[in-house]
Specification:
The complex is a heterodimer. Chain A is mainly α. Chain A contains 22 helices and two strands. In chain A, helix 9 runs antiparallel to helix 12 (236-267) and helix 13 packs antiparallel against helix 22 (509-543). Chain A is globular and about 75 Å long. Chain B folds into two domains: 27-129 and 260-318, D-Maltodextrin-Binding Protein, domain 2 (3-Layer(aba) Sandwich), CATH 3.40.190.10; 131-259 and 328-343, Periplasmic binding protein-like II (D-Maltodextrin-Binding Protein, domain 2), CATH 3.40.190.10. Chain B is built from 14 helices and ten strands. Chain B is globular. Classes of the chains: A mainly alpha, B alpha/beta. At the A-B interface, helix 3, helix 11, helix 16, helix 20 and helix 21 of A face helix 1, strand 2, helix 3, helix 7 and helix 14 of B.
């Protein structure tokens, strides 16, 4: 059993360090969860006003209905586009397939609010498409925008999972007379269900936590209620309580995802991986496939970016963009690497089935479902508290207060990013680890692999693309992040996302265009690298005889 | 290689420690600004300030509510010297959180600003103003029909009014002003009338409302004046055409005056560089800065005597502004939002 086996690994490590590694992971998880816990504490201890009663009596139903519509529309669209395109590019040969492999991921780099501003500007009555297509607004419009910019979560996770899948079941189904689609639906799809569920969970939480898009498109969700409690009513504790409601919704989504994953455990492929052969599509089907892959990229990225860019032609360019780009890339790179490590650690912690590990990973993930501004507020509370404590300590020792290092430093930012986005790193690692089946561990142990060898030679080749993916997701998230970056950054430091937002928020779409496009360009090399990595593992698998598909075991 | 790496790490650590300490060695050679504005005019003003005084400016720009929380979390140790926001409501919130200390009259500079734009205890002041105005379709609306805010709430305008969401602070401050002037009931009946007359679910920003009027989606809209000024001054001829298709009305002339809001600033309670901060606050009211706000941001200078080179803005100027202290906008903001919730102005 995996349980028995990984705990052997842990026993070995424990023997060496005197500390069970799950506690290390749990500590990292709790650190990431700290800002959210601070918000919860604020909600519990803060003064009660009658604002929640007022909301319940007036607009709560509207907020809830909008939240449901936005979340479901986004999930449906992202699920269909993400799964469909992943299936197309992993299992079929058609013109431009290699290009689409990474291009399909690009809309993720487009901030949702920027896509919303672009689409709204195009389709509103006064826009060039006004009257020709329905204006993108309201809860369905906002859900559609989220589906178009967040489907890459599902696409990336599903593609990674599809390409790691053995062809056995699919081929068997085809041999038994299933059509390609039936075989897909009955064998391939159930096996990638955990990946799709993990992707959808991220999509829905992103959609629920968004403020900029839903407020611009007139689709007030619970997040709008929360920001009204904070900004309009001036009651931060009430905002914290509404954040707790959002967190509970995220929690339910996670539970649903867990349930799916648990069922999928039984159906997961064995360690035996036989490479599938890609199906060559007929010219007509090939054209349709190209269209199916092209449309999401056009609608999620090219069209809204082009609209912003068109407006840019009439406005002076923003200045200081090079510095902003360097800052963005540095912060995102460091945070992505760090998150990939923490995410893998927490994914292992979940796998140990120890309560401490699982609970801390779950709590750490919850930060993803709250609006960025609330997460930033949590970080401020934590830092305010720790700074006060350091001051007291330092004053006792030296007589002067400790330098103010926590807020307004790169350290603060990187901590805030981990707290906010660690869920995006846990999901892919966990999904990849689910491929490491109990029987695989058992086989390796039977063949005499020691625990560390097991992790390095059996687990790592299977999970490395998932870990890289985790790093990439956090990298892109950090590139786009706004509220925490704005409020915690050092003096005079700009990022591309902040620059784009500042202009867009002031209704100067033209000047927001260049930083927004640079944001996408900044994400490009990382996306291409990841795509190549994943295809490279595929290629190597193609050439290796099935019995040696798992490196190391044949020795 | 590894030596260089080590050097980098040490350097980074020192830098992050030094960051907090900077500004201390030479007294008041810098001023730390926390601003919720991000306009080209401000960059210009800050650059001019450094040029004239030699005082460097450290800048953090973030949205108003988070800005307040940041200064509050840093407490006594906050590096903030000057806090700038774009709405009297935010200034009120910051003042309630105890983030400001009173300024004297800044060497006489504050006397140039009308009393209505200055906090009663000099905790903050407005350095530029923006009016909440009505724009109407020139070809479909007789301007004599829309001379007051209340006109838009009349049944004749059912299905003809565009305005952005009530989550926006500009709308909150407008109704907050009405609460202060005419009482809650009058404000609520205005808001109810607008909610009933909406041509579409509130969406987009103020510029989008103006575009909607020009495109015929609605006949009248409530917006801040500088968005129209920006369109009329735009390089894009299509934008200028939008600006020409609509007319502007400064409501309530002779009936109390148009509601105005401010871009305002104050001296942070724990300012580490108070002298430099006062110098910057005074500079915001200097002729050079006031001109920049008028010419680059299309805002009205707080000092009415300042002249500027902006024909469009000059065309707007000279209206009667509401003679109420803008502090009231902040005091009544929360009640305004509850009114919106009750009347169904989304």
């Amino acid at each position: 059993m995996a349980i028995a086996d990984t705990s052997t690994l842990h026993r070995k490590l424990t023997g060496r360090t005197g500390l069970h590694p799950v506690w290390l992971a749990a500590f990292a998880g709790l650190l990431c969860a700290a800002p959210l816990l601070a918000v919860v504490w604020l909600g519990m201890s803060g003064a009660w006003s009658d604002y929640l009663i007022h909301i319940a009596n007036t607009r709560l139903a509207e907020f809830l209905i909008n939240t449901a519509i936005v979340g479901l529309t986004a999930a449906l669209l992202a699920g269909v586009i993400g799964t469909g395109t992943a299936w197309l590019v992993t299992r079929h040969v058609f013109p431009g397939r290699n290009l689409f492999q990474w291009m399909l991921a690009l809309p993720l780099a487009m901030p949702a609010y920027a896509a919303a501003y672009g689409w709204y500007d195009l389709t509103q009555g006064a826009g060039p498409l006004g009257g020709l297509v329905p204006a993108v607004h309201g809860p369905f419009g906002a859900g559609a925008i989220f589906g178009l910019v967040f489907y890459p979560y599902v696409y990336l996770l599903a593609r990674e999972s599809f390409s790691a899948q053995s062809a056995d079941a699919y081929d068997a189904a085809r041999t038994l007379g299933c059509s390609p689609f039936q075989a897909f639906a009955r064998t391939a799809l159930p096996m990638v269900r955990p990946a799709i569920a993990a992707g959808l969970a991220l999509v829905v939480m992103e959609a629920l936590a968004d403020y900029g898009t839903v407020s611009h498109l007139g689709a007030p969700t619970l997040t709008v209620a929360l920001m009204r409690a904070w900004a309009g009513e001036g009651s931060i504790p009430d905002a914290a309580r509404l954040a707790m409601l959002l967190v509970s919704i995220s929690f339910l989504i996670f539970m649903a995802e867990r349930a799916l994953r648990r069922r999928a455990r039984q159906t997961a492929a064995s360690g035996h991986v036989r490479a599938f052969r890609r199906q060559r599509l007929s010219p007509l089907a090939g054209m349709l496939a190209v269209l199916a892959c092209l449309l999401p990229v056009l609608m999620g990225l090219v069209i809204p970016a082009a609209r912003l860019g068109w407006r840019a032609a009439y406005t002076p360019a923003a200045t200081g963009l090079m510095d902003a780009a360097v800052n963005s890339l540095t912060l995102a790179g460091v945070s992505g690497l760090l998150a990939a490590g923490i995410g893998l650690g927490l994914a292992y912690a979940i796998r140990t089935r120890k309560l401490a590990g699982r609970a801390s990973a779950r709590i750490a993930s919850m930060g993803y479902g709250v609006p960025g501004a609330v997460a930033a507020l949590g970080v401020l509370i934590i830092f305010g508290g720790v700074q006060g404590w350091l001051d007291t300590l330092w004053r006792g020792m030296t007589g002067s207060p400790f330098p103010l290092v926590l807020t307004g430093s790169a350290l603060a930012l990187i901590f805030a990013y981990q707290a906010r986005f660690i869920a995006a790193a846990i999901g892919p690692s966990e999904s990849a680890l689910s491929r490491v089946t109990p029987s695989l561990d058992a086989a390796a142990r039977t063949l005499g692999a020691r625990p560390l060898t097991l992790a390095r030679r059996v687990h790592w080749p299977l999970v490395s693309s998932g870990v890289a993916l985790a790093g990439l997701l956090v990298f892109v998230e950090v590139l786009k992040e706004l509220p925490a970056t704005m409020i915690l950054r050092p003096f005079n430091m700009n990022t591309l996302a902040v620059t784009a937002h500042n202009f867009a928020a002031d209704e100067r779409l033209g000047q927001a265009a260049l930083p927004a496009v640079l944001l996408v360009a900044a994400a490009l090399p990382a996306m291409i690298w990841i795509a190549r990595r994943i295809t490279a593992t595929e290629r190597s698998r193609d050439t290796v005889p099935p019995s040696e598909a798992i490196p190391g075991l044949a020795e | 290689m590894s030596d260089r790496l080590r050097l980098c790490v040490i350097g980074a650590l020192c830098a992050s420690l030094g960051l907090a300490a900077c500004g201390q060695p030479e007294q008041d050679s810098v001023v730390n600004v926390f601003s919720a504005r991000h306009y080209a005019s401000d960059q210009e003003v800050f650059r001019a300030f450094t040029e004239e005084t030699g005082i460097e400016i450290n800048l953090v720009e973030a949205d108003g509510d988070l800005l307040i929380e940041r200064v509050r979390a840093d407490g006594e140790r906050s590096p903030a010297d000057v806090i700038i926001t774009v709405d009297a409501g935010r200034l009120h919130r910051a003042e309630q959180a105890g983030l400001f200390q009173p300024v004297d009259n800044l060497g006489g500079m504050l006397d140039r600003v009308p009393d209505s734009l200055v906090h009663p205890d000099n905790l903050w002041f407005g350095f530029a103003t923006r009016a909440r105005v009505i724009v109407y379709a020139r070809d479909r609306v007789d301007p004599s029909e829309v001379q007051t805010y209340a006109d838009l709430a009349r049944p004749e305008f059912e299905g003809r009014v565009c305005v952005r969401s009530s989550s926006n602070v500009y709308n909150q401050s407008l109704v907050a002003g009405m609460i202060a002037e005419d009482g809650s009931e009058a404000a609520e009946s205005f808001a109810r009338g607008i909610a009933q007359n909406l041509a579409r679910t509130p969406q987009g920003g103020d510029t989008d409302q103006i575009r909607a009027v020009a495109a015929g989606e609605c006949d009248v809209a409530i917006v801040n004046h500088y968005y129209l000024g920006r369109l009329m001054n735009a390089e894009d001829s299509a934008d200028r055409a939008v600006g020409e298709a609509v007319g502007i009305i400064f409501p309530d002339q002779g009936q109390g005056g148009t509601y105005v809001n401010i871009s305002g600033a104050g001296l942070a309670a724990n300012a580490p560089n108070p002298e430099a901060a006062r110098a910057l606050l005074a500079f915001l009211l200097s002729e050079r800065a006031q001109r920049a706000f008028a010419e680059l941001t299309n805002e009205f200078p707080a000092d009415p005597s300042v002249s500027y080179d902006n024909t469009v803005l000059e065309g707007f100027a000279g209206f009667e502004a509401r003679d109420m202290n803008v502090n009231a906008l902040g005091e009544n903001g929360a009640e305004a939002q509850r009114i919106f919730d009750r009347v169904g102005w989304p």
